[in-house]
Amino acid sequence: MATKLIQPPKSAPNFLHPIPSGTIKIMRVHKALSATHSRKKNHTKFCEYPSGLGTIFSSKASEKNFGVEVEDVKKTIQQIKESLYDALQGINRGIFGVPSEKKAEIARLLELLESQNPSPEPTMNIEKMAGTWKLVYSTITILGSRRTKLGLRDFINLGDFFQNIDVVEGKAVNVIEFSARGLNLFKGQLRIEATFKIASKSTVDIRYQNSTITPEQLMNLFEKNYDLLLSIFNPEGWLNITYVDDNFRIGRDDKGNIFVLERS
Questions:
Q1: Burial call 122-146: b when 16+ CB within 10 Å, e when fewer
Q2: Percentage of the chain with pLDDT > 70?
Q3: 24 domain-assigned
Q4: Is residue 192 in some structural domain?
Q5: 119 neighbors 125 (Cβ within 8 angstroms)
Q6: Assuming Cys at both sites, which of 3, 144, 169, 216 could form a disulfide with 234, CB separation 3.0 to 4.6 Å?
């Protein structure tokens, strides 16, 4: 969903006083350890702004990177998707919370899909993201007092989430559907418009433009807590597209949220 390195110069070798061979061995071991430490440090920079993510996700899936188990490597993309859809059953896209074990299972399957991403440079083929998408899972949650204030516990039902992407205009429109009980079950929607521009081979910058709620009766219900509603669904920031194929997409934003969508 959317909403918008320097080292000091090395001294010349001392040819008159050669370095003892034992010292050379120690230096080589030290350099190897330093290189290993550097690689591990860089590998953990998952949430930083982010062109390096494509490289991380394309690393060997046989290693336990991002929770990927050895036996998972043998699964095809279709098998992973089937397992993921099974895991998503009955959790209402994760909006009202997910048990920790279930959340971990979903995270593992998403990481496995990302490790087999057929489009490691998605913004270079931005047309793949054009069209309408439907949210099937997100780590954004509406819990506790926020759910009560918005009436989502007893009075208002949360419907489908759609995202329409126009790659020519660089626009994304998020539509969140609602229905209200007690008012003849009338339906309405929150519509959030944003623009986006390519920031890297896998990342887009998103800027919020405007939002509307229709019909007027629904706006009256949300008016008091409209800022709260926007704070949940506002897409402003950057989005890293970690997986995309013809009908499935995964994105991770700068706030640590995950979005999984299927083509509508």
A1: bbeebebbeeebebbbbbbebeeee
A2: 70
A3: no
A4: yes
A5: yes
A6: 3
How many structural domains does the chain have? Answer: 1
Q: pLDDT tens, 36-68?
A: 444 444 433 333 334 333 333 333 333 344 445
For residue 212, the enclosing domain spans 56-263
Q: How many CB atoms lie within 10 A of CB 52?
A: 15
Provide the pLDDT for residue 153: 87
